[in-house]
Amino acid sequence: MRNMDENNVRKNLSNEAKNSLDIKEVEVNKPKKKNRWLLYLVILGFAVYSVITIVNQSIAIEAKKAELQKIRDEIVIKEIKNDEMSEVNNFTDEQKAEYIEEEARDIYGYIKPGERVFINVSGD
Q1: What is the C-alpha separation between 8 and 45, in angstroms, rounded?
Q2: For residue 15, pLDDT beyond 60
Q3: Residues 104 and 110: beta-carbon distance below 8 Å
Q4: Cα atoms found within 13 Å of the Cα of residue 99, Cβ hemisphere only
Q5: At 92, is the secondary structure helix, strand, or coil?
């Protein structure tokens, strides 16, 4: 019986405590939809900005790759000319004179005095 009395006392105390505390229900405020739309708009803006930046960077990278390839091609041409000049340096005086004459004819179109030049105008 004593257990029943203790249970009754506890129930009465808990009921009295509930009544004396004035428990109120509190509503949780949901975020406003305007804030959500603003957040979505900011995220969309950032995504668009990121895509545009990535595309621009890709275009710039491709342009730099093309420029690099052009410079590499120029380096190969210069190396070939350097090798040719090294060979010319090892020529005898007679070979150097022949080389200079050949270059003057090919590059500058020089001719010897009294020499006739025939030009093919038909294109064949």
Answers
A1: 64
A2: no
A3: yes
A4: 13
A5: coil
Among the listed residues 58, 102, 108, 57, the one whose alpha carbon sits nearest the alpha carbon of residue 84: 102
Band (pLDDT 50/70/90 cuts) for residue 119 is confident
Tokens of 63: 């342009």
- pTM as predicted: 0.48
What is the identity of the amino acid at 112? K
pLDDT at 117: 81
Radius of gyration of the chain (CA): 47
CA distances from 26 to 18, 42, 55 (A): 16, 32, 50
Which of 11-15, 83-87, 88-92, 117-121 has the weakest average pLDDT? 11-15
Residue found under tokens 């930046």: 53
CA 30 distance to own-chain centroid: 42
* CA gap 61, 88 in Å, rounded: 40
